[in-house]
Amino acid sequence: MLTDAATLQRNLDQHEVILVDCRYRLEDGSAGRRAYHRGHIPGAYYLSLAENLAGPGASIDGRHPLPQPERFFELLRSLGITERSRLVAYDDQGGLMAARFWWLCRWVGHLQVELLNGGWQAWLAAGGEASSEVSQRPRSDYVPGPFNNLTVSAAALKRELAEGSVLLVDARSVARFRGEEEPIDTVAGHIPGAVNRPATQNLDAEGYFYEPARLRESWLSLLGDFQPDQVVHSCGSGVTACHNLFAMELAGLAGSRLYAPSWSGWIADPDNPCEV
């Protein structure tokens, strides 16, 4: 699930390794692409959260709706990905954006996908080369699969929350969860019944994931009597929630699901209650 910069340097020339640069800023949608053109890991492709890792949808689908599976299949084919490909994604925010790509790959059935621990900064710190060349490979006809249903709908989430059969974990900052500030969405607060665990708590001060044992202890403390497959992850738009999901998987706590519309989709339905 994780690879380090030194290992990636040794394997960079392997044809099966395909790198994906996921750098992105919510406040400036073109910042990641500009950063990619200034310098990236040699051979990496650039994928934008808004343009490539999200799709069109209604307001109840959230700010970054999931792309249609076939559209994401086509994206993978355009990168030359095959069933043998080992994908490595990175960003410059400790994996907060790259985890969305990791989750999407698993969603459509491609399980050979990893995150670069520490991301772009770790690559540079290890003496990695920066390239400005745009990568190209022949298009493949790969069809990932089988499709994995790793999401929960708003209706199912409401039902399970009412039954007390699900633990909803919100990955946003404490201030946004509490409704003390809301710089992005039109309503502040959180989904009633949710608990808060900011995705940044998966990382150390240098932006590396904590060791699996430490993550496991932390997550088990939060879960209490809930099993991993009773956990649903949420955030602002279904992006950083994937980081929490990744951290649970890294900790050996598999089976949690994603409420992809997250807070931005929840508040689009005026009948949904909100809490601060």
Structure, explained:
The protein has 276 residues and is of the alpha/beta class. It has two domains: 2-125, Oxidized Rhodanese, domain 1 (3-Layer(aba) Sandwich), CATH 3.40.250; 154-266, Oxidized Rhodanese, domain 1. Helices cover 32% and strands 11% of the residues. The chain has a five-stranded parallel beta sheet. The longest helix is centred in the last third of the chain and has 12 residues, at 212-223.
In short:
This protein is 32% helix and 11% strand.
Within CATH, the superfamily of the largest domain carries the name Rhodanese-like domain
Strand count, sense and closure of the main sheet? 5 strands, parallel
Distance between the termini: 35 Å
Low-confidence stretches: none
β-strand number: 9
Which architecture of the largest domain would the CATH scheme give at its second level? 3-Layer(aba) Sandwich
CATH topology of the largest domain: Oxidized Rhodanese, domain 1
Structural class: alpha/beta
Task: Report the portion of residues in β strands.
Answer: 5-15%
How many H/I helices?
11
- Integer average pLDDT: 96
Biggest sheet: strand arrangement: 1-5-4-2-3
Overall tally of domains: 2
Percent of residues in helices: 25-40%
Rg over alpha carbons: 18 Å
Q: What is the global morphology?
A: globular
What is the class of the largest domain in the CATH system? Alpha Beta
**What's the helix-strand series?**
EHEHEHHEHEHHEHEHEHEH
